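Lecture notes, structural biology module. Today: joint structure prediction for complexes of two components.
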Amino acid sequence: MNEMNHNWDVIPEFHPEFDLERCDYENGCSECVRECSFGEISLKPVKGRNGAVQYRPWANLSSCNACQRCVKMCPQRAIHIVQSPMYTSHGYWTREHVGNIWRQAKSEGGVLLVGSGATGPQRRYFDHIMFDACQVTNPSIDPLREPMEIRRYLGRKPDHYGGEIGPQLKLEMPIMFGAMSFGALNLRVHEAEAIATKAVGTYWNTGEGGFHEKLRGYGANTIVQVASGRFGVSEDYLKSASAVEIKIGQGAKPGIGGHLPGEKVSEAVSKTRMIPMGSDALSPAPHHDIYSIEDLRQLIYAIKEATEYKVPVSVKISAVHNVAPIVSGVARAGADIIAVDGFRGGTGATPLQIRQNTGIPIELAISAADMRLKDEGIRDTVSLVASGGIQSSSDVLKAICLGADAVYVATPVLVALGCNMCQRCFTGRCPYGITTNKPGLAERIDVALAAAALTNLLCAWGEEIKELMGSMGISAIEALRGNRDRLRGVALNDEELRILGIKHAGA
Amino acid sequence: MCGIVGIVNTDRKMIDGSYIKEAIRIQKDRGNGLGGGFAVYGAYPENKDKYAFHIMYEGDHNSPAVARIEDYLKTRTVIYQSEQIPVYPNRRIPRGPYMKRYFLKPIEEFMAPEQTEEDFIIDIVMHINRMNDAFVVSSGKNVGVFKGMGYPEDIGDYFRIEDYRGYMWTAHNRFPTNTPGWWGGAHPFTILDKAVVHNGEITSYGTNVRWLEMYGYYCLLQTDTEVISYIYDKLSRRDGLSEGDACCVMAPPLWEEIDRTKDEKKRYLRQTYGSAIVNGPFGIVLTHKEGAIVLNDRNKLRPVVCAQAGNTYYASSEECSIRFLSSDVDRIWSPRGGEPVLLHLAAETDRKVPS
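The predicted structure, tokenised, for the full assembly:
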């Protein structure tokens, strides 16, 4: 019944509690048991009023992740999740640290794996940046009455009249869905992403797990990825999309490769990735044909040759200490688009220590990269995409003011589909049917509803961006790229302000 | 809020500065005494083959900046003539910074290989402006700019603007709101032969400045307007765009319109020069050696009225100035937002410089 580890040395952090006054078990309801994909809830036989055996929901105290699926799906609203009060936290040795050590010492051993992005206390710079607004001296613009343009073109632009414009991606709003692979996600989620981006006029990214045959019709809104594992890469694959992205790194796990556990490699995943069913899909940490910038240049041009120079080639790197010179090098190596992924970026599976401790915030990274390209006079030759921890439309616009041409969002896609941040994506047991290919779970995603949710999300953020622009008196979003004049910092020190290129509030 | 007036005689018939001084005086409400100025084309016919540098120094004629900058100029240019710009302090403007004008030509040996004469001059202007104790007020051939702190009619009196004659004039009455009022911050803003008078606020300033810096233009005068003259210089002179195309970059058509008309040239311009878009409310008169451009922002958030009387064209923030200048105009209209009015001077060789 419960396949998860029973590990009584680690006190379970969460468990469900059942309000038996409300619970409908007497009539045979066992919805919670079916909903729980982690095996926390079982049925316990009890003697009923008429003497017959009845089955009551029962918390196993073994594997609750507080995903809230049972709470949301209980027809009687009879469940709530409680956090264990069994030990109080030491001010320095928090529950998290104690629990991690127990887990490594006693049972799980090895490297601690987690899903989603970094949770640490590092400053979220977006919260310390405020927008300007028009007052008196210039009129704000009402987006309901005046045209407000948020279209972006990504790709190489000339620095003089008459120069050639490279192949471009046309984004009706400066938001794309970030790379999440088939395998990490199921086909239904990919289809929903494809439908939504087609409806809105932007792009989604297949991630490194190949591009399923069924979705090839959405190529005009798709970016395909070439990562170190080269899963699913073929000539057809490269030619099937609007852009090809070389993934060097990812914010959630800079410097290491990917790992799709064998449990998630179903038949369809195996076919699309071109690997045996059930085998772990391991992407090496580096590309073994890219040990230097010169090698990257060769791959960029190999892909351009293969795609006959018809689509832009993007290079995705994680935001690391030396991000500015790296971006400059990548631009000079021939990339048309560079995606920089901050340390808050999400993932399906990453070693805990890497997730929490490697990389830098996207706000600082994108600003430093943009300034470096400007100082070298090559800013227009390449488009910059920011990602990693974008939580709202205002984050999108702040990233643009700090120098991004557009952003990738990925965690918001999952949240829009119901994700509750339980961070157990790597188990393949996603109770919301998002990061799982298990029959019975994946079906929890209804493609049409999911596509509608994603379309709604994009449209809502687009409207909010227009409102923010209108309040600043900007009617075309290109007038905001790198426009740090319209930002002010609050409670930031001089060095932070210098790197962001903004003034402090009041100045 | 600011007031602007422009007068262009396309036949290069000369008029003196008294007319425009009176025309801008009528728009007194549009300024607050923190800046006024004039640009006159055709001011120095006897030196029209030389760059006329008007330089404003901090302090008086004893300022160490004077000798330093003149030494600097001498290492790069031949100065044919230099003199203090005559000023006439009055009750409203009792004093001002020390100003000199120089007629000079670059020394070719000092130019970088393949550098044009104009780019060489721009480098000199940027170098002086970055010293922070001297500012180049104007640097074009046969062009003079006179500006300062005060109402424009008082600035006009200070320089005795009626003593100058030209075939193309602009004037500006400033009401600064987002940057300090100071002598160097008054309009017109110039680079080479381009001068801009501007009413508005440029919300894209940060983006524009960063783009310009990539091409060696530095915005140091603490006022958003200077970006327009630099953007136009980069587009028209360096990149060779036509006036219409340059306006299409600064006030581009909507994407929707580009899609509908399938105008691939406009799409190209907007894609290539996204960072040169001028956003926010503005009405400008941009003058250059071959004519003038009157342009409004796409949403027409600032007033500009144009009029024609024979070969004389007028542009003004308010119609009253035009009615003052000409009681009998052939045509008067309000240009639509984003649609430039392009005025072209007759070729200079057509006639002698009239007296």
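Point to remember: Chain B touches chain A through 39 residues (CB under 8 Å).
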